[in-house]
């Protein structure tokens, strides 16, 4: 972990054909009928969770996210312009006002011109970070009654959290670290942060068939999660008890991140699941959200919960050891949620580390920022950007799509791949494509066959998906071996599509398929 990490706010960017000659692969062009459309480019599941936990209407949630996008870009620009005079920034509780602290009065005009509210402070954020770094270095000397410490940009101070009755311990710790008077404030809170794991149930993953944690975000070759969930070499299984992968890297304490490399039976996808109801939300990047921004967390125990970012670069003094560089929130979490995903709009933010309280009475929860995990391990986030939204066949009972004309059967290539329909495309690791042409086709009951020819040196997965329950679900899967993936499946009548997933390498592929 970079001990020099600035507390300064990052940026939030919230989101937002075939000619044939057989009746079988008939390609639809109608628009989908989905459970609920996205509003303002934000998935309805996120808006619903924000409405529940932040008491917002959908319109208010969309407006708040719009303001947060503006704030993120504004802060990025002002931070560069103000230099050492930048003292941090935050959104008001209602998300309507952006305040930027300035240690140099000359910067106030720049802040006003940008549409934000300036606040004069004594110290730039770099000076506060330096104080916190000294506390981090002395962390081993902290009393167990000192729960953690973080930079509070709104108070222009470093805050040490002490449990009730242990305020003197907090002051002694700050003094021992050489903190100057007035720069560190001791606050009392009944917090006892702990890693959240070891509760069974829900859609999660198991470690060595024992402890349970939650998947964070998909990356090329696997997923990221919390470091306290496992150590390198530990084996994981899905909640279905099917072998899943192995912890390839892990760091805890100090940091709280891990990378699990999955086997060929599992395909990383650029979505986050609400484990409570099975719905999914797209992930389209990992731009960092500011202090004061809304944030939602998904975990295998409590599903999706939302709140606000309270502070960056927080240190937590767990019983197992000190972890630095976390983000502090007022979102609740419970055991088993550890490792789960944090989203701001559609942007990945981090993985659950630990916290205090529960989702009955509320609490404080910390997450490990995801960008550091990606950078430290040279990983690539899998996003949904190349995954078109599901297209749904029209309603109408037993209505069928009229027959369409067929293309001539393409000749087999040098891998022997051939079929009634052929499509080509270019793909890279961590990307996906939907075929044919981003749409779907209809078939009666029968056998479906497909052959995927991958570019040299590339590893790919081919998935056959059927539209059911309001979304496309995978019904058959094949991974490439010696450059080719072959798939045969007995399927029911319905609407289908193929999903091509790049695991490693890049280049042009050919997909040939038939249905009869």
TrEMBL record:
- List cellular component terms (GO): extracellular region
This chain belongs to which protein, by name? Answer: Streptogrisin C
SUPFAM superfamilies in the record: Trypsin-like serine proteases (SSF50494)
| Coiled-coil spans in chain | none
What family does the Swiss-Prot or TrEMBL record give for this protein? Answer: Belongs to the peptidase S1 family.
Q: In this protein, which residues make up the domain named Peptidase S1?
A: 223-374
Please list the residue ranges annotated as the Peptidase S1A alpha-lytic prodomain domain. 123-180
A single Pfam family it belongs to is Trypsin
Q: Name one GO biological process term.
A: proteolysis
**Could you cite one Gene Ontology molecular function of this protein?**
serine-type endopeptidase activity
Task: Note the Gene3D superfamilies from the entry.
Answer: 3.30.300.50, Trypsin-like serine proteases (2.40.10.10)
Q: Residue spans with biased composition (Low complexity)?
A: 400-416
Query: Where is the region Disordered?
Result: 384-419
Alphabetized, the UniProt keywords read: Disulfide bond, Hydrolase, Protease, Serine protease, Signal, Zymogen
